[in-house]
Specification:
The chain is built from ten helices and 14 strands. By secondary structure, it is an alpha/beta fold. It holds the Pfam family ADH_zinc_N.
Length: about 325
């Protein structure tokens, strides 16, 4: 079969190499998936780029956690799945249900076990969520990391309610899913972006207000003037956390997800204390049970993930570079034809 491997981390993704591998066979409790599409997250860039940093990766590895395809074979003892089932691939294949533990997230797809950027891939059958009929492979391939992270932060951990306000930083995969989920639950959304085009698109998706963080560097106070945010999707890290804490309303929830604007640094904890904020890291993305609940909620309104651009299988390196350039809004997909 055709596949990609990250053989070494390099600045221009030259270490992402197309290769031939033996087609895997499912063992007991496993399912073989014919992958039809997969998508990239910032994590995938960090694994493949020596100028970024991602702990715990094991190279060489078939990259990408997010994929979708068809079950084409099952191993002994599998009765939950059958050939022909349409499934999404898991981020944490050992986290099926229950509370997060270190053991359940010790293995991560595309990090220290082989991922979805291949024609065929084997996963524990219990880890694979069934896709609803309405979702395309491209849409299904966008969910495993960004979609489930946004869902877990707002719904599973944050107990999102109608009438609350969500602040989404930027318009990448997690933030765009947060916008869509929040609107589905009847919440209002504020989006930050320096791009007028992206802010306009966010408003088309239902954002009640948008802010240009370059024109308004104290955007945390600007959000407070709009009434404050009950939930902040914090994907920037140390570079944005101070403003996020300022934006949150009393009793609000700041969901720490990414470090796009930098790591380290000092942040004054006084706003978190003074406003009794919940500041919570979203680690391990989510379980298959959470994934199932997310898909059921999406199916009610046939919620379509926002796919910015689709690349061919032979254009995988170009897809990495496109995501790094930061011009996308929503998800970037690679077809596996």
């Amino acid at each position: 079969m055709d596949a990609y491997e990250v053989r070494e981390a390099t600045p221009e993704y030259e270490g992402v190499v197309r290769t031939e591998r033996e087609r895997p066979e499912p063992g007991p409790g496993e399912a073989l998936v014919r992958v039809r599409a997969c998508s990239l997250n910032y994590r995938d860039l960090a694994i493949a780029n020596s100028e970024l940093a991602y702990p715990g990766a094991r190279l060489p590895v078939v990259p990408l956690s997010d994929g979708a395809g068809d079950v084409v074979g099952v191993g002994e003892g599998v009765d939950r799945l059958s050939e022909g089932d349409r499934v999404a691939t898991p981020f944490a294949p050992d986290w099926v249900d229950g509370r997060l533990t270190r053991e359940k997230t010790a293995r991560t797809t595309g990090g220290n076990v082989d991922g979805a950027l291949a024609e065929y891939a084997v996963f524990p059958a219990e880890s694979l969520p069934l896709l609803p009929e309405y979702l395309s492979y491209e849409g299904g391939a966008s969910l495993s990391c960004a979609g489930l992270t946004a869902w877990r932060a707002l719904v599973e951990d944050g107990d999102l309610r109608a009438g609350e306000t969500v602040l989404a930083l930027g318009t990448g995969g997690v933030s765009t899913f947060a916008l869509q989920f929040a609107r589905t639950f009847g919440a209002e959304v504020i989006v930050t972006s320096s791009s007028a085009e992206k802010r306009e698109r966010a408003e088309e998706l239902g954002a009640a207000a948008t802010l240009d963080y370059e024109e308004t560097p104290e955007w945390g106070e600007a959000v407070r003037e709009l009434g404050g945010a009950d939930h902040v999707i914090e994907v920037g890290g140390a570079g944005t956390l101070e403003q996020s804490l300022a934006a949150a309303t009393v009793g609000g929830h700041v969901h720490l997800i990414g470090v796009l604007a930098g790591q380290g640094g000092e942040v004054d904890p006084a706003p978190a204390l003074g406003k009794a904020l919940t500041v919570e890291g979203v680690l391990g993305v989510g379980s298959r049970a959470m994934f199932d609940r997310m898909l059921r909620a999406m199916a009610v309104e046939e919620l379509e993930p926002v796919v910015d651009r689709t690349f061919g299988f032979d254009e995988a390196r170009e897809a990495y570079r496109y995501v790094e350039a930061g011009e996308h809004q929503g998800k970037v997909v690679v077809r596996v034809d």
